[in-house]
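Recall the central idea of this unit: under ordinary conditions, the amino acid sequence of a chain determines the structure it adopts. In this exercise we apply that idea directly, starting from the sequence alone.
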Amino acid sequence: MAQIYDLLIIGSGPAGMAAAIYAQRAGLKAAVLEKTGISGGQVLTTYEVDNYPGLPEISGFDLSEKFKEHALHLGTEIQTAEVKKVIDQGTTKVLNTDQGCLEARTVLIATGAHHAKLHIPGEEELAGMGVSYCATCDGAFFRNRTAVVVGGGDVAVEDAIFLARFCKKVYLVHRRDSLRAAKLLQEHMLSLSNVEVIWNAEVKKIAGEEQVEQVTLFYNKENREEVLPVDGVFIAVGTIPDTAFVKGLVGQDEKGYLIAGEDCRTSVKGIYAAGDVRTKALRQILTAAADGANAVTSVQEDLLTL
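Accordingly, the structure predicted from this sequence is:
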């Protein structure tokens, strides 16, 4: 640990890269740590992004590359390293990684969250080819087509309502005979003529050659299977924040998200959270990038007194 950084950014998705850009422009000695060596985070799984201002119809991969190119153009240091633990030493923080230890005055956690998966045949193979975990990101691509939403909570019902605006038919598949979603949401969804709920059923398989063509349903009370032709599968069974490495150090909510406001400050002075990893109402590429900018603003203010 020969050098001490002003800021170490953990994660290279939109929040992390936006933070890196703002840190470079602010003249901070900063670096981005990415465990896989491939920048982008969840954005990489999005086939096409059409809600990022100024860049219509860009692929998730290309958008991620643009973020990275911009950061590198400004001189951002990007290291491939997986952070195993963060140690708060007061005026500095030590990051234990699989490549050794690093030290910084401040740390930004921008590790994001991953979507809970069904772990069924076809899910991984057809990801980005009809299998999606974000209706608001990808729903418009299924205009006048048929889609399945899997889940029973608020997000699943909201997804079904959103997709009903574009799709000719939306099926909500739920393994139980009642939904967990808020009553008002349920009533709204059930009032839509092109939405049908399939109760007591589970999606057991997703199939298709180059894109989703059908799903296999298992009716758990009738003990039978059925093949349902569809064009898209939207999986909404929850998200899991990537925060295990700071459990017990930084304040988290009951789901593991880091508790932080719009200024991105956490319960530990000098540690910040940006993007999907923090408690927030809307998790999108644009809001993650905004978090990155806000976080660096907080870092600049706090470095004056740390």
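Helices lie at 14-25, 60-73, 135-138, 154-163, 183-190, 285-303.
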